[in-house]
Amino acid sequence: MEERVANGHQVDTRSTAHFLHDYASEQADLRRLYEQAKIDQWNAATDIEWAAPLEGDGGLISDDLVDIHGTRFWDAMSEADRVELNHRITRWRLSTLVQGEHGAMLLCSQLVDCVQGQDAKLFQATQVADEARHNEVLQRYLELRLDGETYGLGGNVKEIFDTLLSTSSWYLKTIGLQLVAETFAVSLFRMLAESSKDPVLRQVCRRILQDEARHMGFAMLSLPEIVGQATEAEHREMEDFAVWALSRTLGGIFPLGAYQDMGFGKAELDEIKQFRRERAAGGDETAFRKYFRRDLHDGLVRNLRKVGLLTERITPSLQSFGIKLAA
Ligand SMILES: [Fe+2]
Ligand SMILES: [Fe+2]
């Protein structure tokens, strides 16, 4: 009998589990990362000061991250409406993140099976627990500050994780998750940890950031060897997969539901979207966004180069995403 969950969706997967018969450590740097992962464990229930009060006007993320901040729409809003919009945009952003953390947990549980070395398996087992904690801590935050409701599976989250879950090779999964999505996560959580108004959110993001940096490290330690040994065709497949993952991860998504809930009509929404596009294209972004973008692009170039996937063949694609290679 096929069982289906009511509040979710199914992805059919096919993969190979490698059951090892020898448990000696064979990759010292990955073993060190595993040891670090054990030291760095924390408890979402008790290691966050959940009772810390709100500060300032009660907003959660920085107003800089609300698209209409600094426009006539913002100027026309009452103080209370600005705080409410800040809360709705926060709910929208954290919805995408809590969903992504859930997807990462599912994906890493597959990686425990399909990575081939003992040290990689042990590390992936820790990443499953890390992603479970991230899924939990963001849900706890949503319940504390925003009644626990989330916006529906948004943006490219479904496409990214459905594709990664149904891809059978571990290294493509790792290119999509630990190399691309988690390099993105490191920059995003760093920015939120530094810019958020709510001290609880800053703490949550700082904690997650520490784990995500380690997950990104898994890509740096596990990919160079397999990329180096790849045939020309396999190398191209890896490059193309990285470009696909970049296009989906970097494609900005507009928090439409949050604005609709505030009562913005279609004409106003069109104007806001246009404003958002112009500001991004003209480089006229707020300080936090600019910092995030530079940090992210530098990180992506550095990491792609480190694992051996920054080739001339994919350079035009990177440039089309606005990534400068001089970094
Ligand atoms: Fe995570
Ligand atoms: Fe992660």
By DSSP (H or I, 4+ residues per run), the number of helices equals: 12
At the first level of CATH, the class is Mainly Alpha
Question: First CA to last CA: what distance?
Answer: 54 Å
Task: Give the cofactors and ligands.
Answer: fe (ii) ion
What is the SS-derived class?
mainly alpha
Considering DSSP H and I runs of 4 or more, what fraction of the residues is helical? Answer: 55-70%
Tell me the series of helices and strands, N- to C-terminal: HHHHHHHHHHHH
* The CATH topology: Ribonucleotide Reductase, subunit A
Number of strands: 0
Write the layout of secondary structure elements.
Elements: H1 28-39, H2 72-75, H3 79-114, H4 118-146, H5 157-166, H6 170-195, H7 199-229, H8 232-250, H9 256-261, H10 266-281, H11 287-307, H12 315-320
The protein binds fe (ii) ion (FE2) (2 copies).
The site of one fe (ii) ion (FE2) has 5 residues, from helix 7.
Characterize the structure shown:
- The longest helix has 36 residues, at 79-114.
- The protein has helices at 28-39, 72-75, 79-114, 118-146, 157-166, 170-195, 199-229, 232-250, 256-261, 266-281, 287-307, 315-320.
- 66% of the residues lie in helices and 0% in strands.
- The chain has a single domain (28-265, 284-320), classed as Ribonucleotide Reductase, subunit A (Orthogonal Bundle).
- Helix 3 (79-114) runs parallel beside helix 5 (157-166), helix 6 packs parallel to helix 8 (232-250) and helix 6 (170-195) runs antiparallel to helix 11.
- By secondary structure, the chain is an all-alpha fold.
- The mean pLDDT is 93.
- It binds fe (ii) ion (2 copies).
- The site of one fe (ii) ion (FE2) has 6 residues, from helix 3, helix 4 and helix 7.
